[in-house]
Structure formats: C-alpha cells, structure tokens
C-alpha cells in the first residue's frame, strides 16, 4: 500500500480524553501519516469562534506545500467536541496550555513528538503559551493575529459580535454549520472577554524569557480585533521572531491571503533549515 501524502485528510474522529477527572471528547483529524515521527507535526489551533471544520481546506493546502503531516482539532466547547458551559475562567487560555493541550497530545500519542504550532487569534495566544510551557517539544510557532493583551478595538469587536449573535440570525446560522452547540462556542469565548476585569488580561510576562523556538508573527494591517502592537510585542520580548504585516488583510490572513501566507511560511521554514 502506498503511503498517503501529508495533505491527505483522514476522516474526523472523536478522541476520548480524561482531564481533571472529567471525560471529554475531542473532534480531531489527521492529515497524512501523522504518526510517522520522522518529521515535525504541524498542529492547527483555531480562533475563539473556530473549529476543525472552519479551517476548511487551508490545513491540507499548507501541509501539502510544506510536505508535513498535520493535526486539526476542536477544543472543548467548539465543533463536535464536548460543549463547555459559560462562564469560562478568565485564564482559560493559560489553563488550556498547561492542562488541555498536554492531555490531548498524550491521548493522541504525541507526548514526545516534535511539533510546529500554527495558531489563529485565541489559538495563536494558546500556541505561544504552550511553546513557553513545553519549550523542548515545540520547534516553531506561527502566531497569526495573536492576543498578548486586550486593546479597546478588541472589546469593540466583541461587543459588535454579541449584538450580531443576539439580535440577528446570520452569525448564529453561520456558527451552526460548524458547532454542535453554538451557545457553548459563542458565550464561552465572548463572555470571558467581556467580563469586567478582563481588560487587564496580559500574557507578556508568561512569555518573557520562556520562548525558545522561532516565531513567525503574522497580522493583517486591517485586523478589526487587534493592532500591529500585538505582533510587535512578541518581537520585543523574543528575539527569534520574524514579523509579517500583511496589507489589505483583516483578522483571518489564511482566508484573506492564503497564497501569500503559505509562501511566507515556506520561506520562514527554509530559513530555519
């Protein structure tokens, strides 16, 4: 039998997981022969309203371009993974970096596997936190539209999203195509960020001096949820950072400019090799 190429998506499956005494199911999908340990595994960490299916074909396209196997999954509260009732704790991303991701990787047989992390928005913050937590495992991070701290424009976007979700039906219907429980996905994320006191949330101190891998920090110049200060802050606290500011691009470069993003990532990885 021929070996599938890294781009070949396997059928999604529900991975059982025990975390803090709770039984969870994690919607997961391999791209290619992901268990083959000769290469780093490219792991995709979705945004605050994202899921496995919301990446669409981008993970397969990126894995094909890089000739790397991949893993895509929905965190609890999203997609077809176990729902999570709001409110989520204000440090939910830090908790996921310290608890959820290690448990997921252990359950999937990846505890000792070298990883490349590709994170978007919430997922980019999570990728940076996990890289700081598991420096020996992570070989590189692509942090796309990350949040290191809360900006006024971020809160404005969150308020606008809440209005759209509660007073219209287009956002709710759009989320229903990707999440079994839309309230779990929306309110877990939205309520956490809009809770009084969250405006002081900041992960810079948790990253300072703890990141050891190369970082490609990507931001759309017209990102409606964060300014270029987010990626500039990564470069200020970690010298091995390449900044990529994409003009005419919003919060989702992998949707707005996928070809340019893939080309830049190819060049970045080639420079590391």
TrEMBL record:
AB hydrolase-1 domain location: 42-263
Pfam families in UniProt: Abhydrolase_6 (PF12697)
SUPFAM superfamilies: alpha/beta-Hydrolases
Record key words, sorted: Hydrolase
Domain of life: Bacteria
UniProt-recorded Gene Ontology molecular function terms: hydrolase activity
Gene3D superfamilies reported in the protein's UniProt record: alpha/beta hydrolase
Protein name: Alpha/beta hydrolase
Organism this protein belongs to: Roseateles flavus
């Amino acid at each position: 039998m021929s070996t599938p190429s890294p781009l070949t998506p396997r059928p999604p499956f529900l991975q059982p997981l025990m975390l803090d005494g709770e039984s969870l199911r994690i919607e997961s999908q391999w791209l290619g022969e992901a268990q083959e340990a000769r290469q780093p595994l490219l792991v995709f960490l979705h945004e605050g309203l994202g899921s496995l299916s919301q990446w669409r074909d981008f993970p397969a396209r990126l894995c094909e371009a890089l000739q790397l196997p991949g893993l895509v999954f929905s965190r609890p509260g999203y997609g077809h993974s176990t729902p999570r009732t709001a409110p989520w704790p204000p440090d939910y991303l830090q908790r996921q970096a310290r608890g959820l991701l290690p448990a997921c990787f252990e359950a999937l047989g990846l505890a000792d596997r070298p990883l490349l992390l590709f994170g978007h928005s919430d997922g980019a913050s999570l990728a940076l936190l996990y890289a700081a937590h598991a420096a020996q495992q992570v070989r590189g991070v692509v942090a796309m539209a990350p949040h290191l701290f809360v900006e006024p424009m971020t809160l404005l976007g969150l308020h606008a999203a809440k209005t759209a979700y509660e007073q219209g039906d287009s956002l709710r219907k759009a989320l229903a195509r990707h999440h079994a429980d839309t309230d779990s996905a929306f309110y877990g994320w939205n309520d956490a960020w809009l809770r009084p006191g969250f405006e002081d949330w900041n992960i810079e101190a948790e990253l300072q001096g703890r990141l050891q891998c190369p970082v490609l920090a990507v931001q759309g110049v017209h990102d409606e949820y964060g300014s270029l200060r987010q990626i500039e802050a990564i470069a200020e606290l970690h010298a091995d950072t390449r900044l990529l500011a994409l003009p005419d691009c919003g919060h989702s470069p992998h949707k707005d400019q996928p070809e340019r993003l893939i080309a830049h990532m190819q060049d970045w990885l080639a420079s590391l090799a």
